[in-house]
Amino acid sequence: MELNAGYGIDNPFxxxxxxxxLPFAAYYPGIAKNRSFFANTIYSPSTYLQFSLEYRxxxxxxxxxxxxxx
Length: 70
Description:
This protein is mainly beta and 70 residues long. It is 10% helix and 60% strand.
């Protein structure tokens, strides 16, 4: 039996956020911060059989102030 968890943050520099809100910069559309969390468990009753369960959550904050949950 294994239990795993992780948390990550992507926090760009201010100049990257500022340049992304300009109309011609479609590659990074106003995203100010990304965060993610995951947790999983893996159960292996034998060498050839495994069962796994995973939970993942993503948060995206935009420069306009709104947050999007997935």
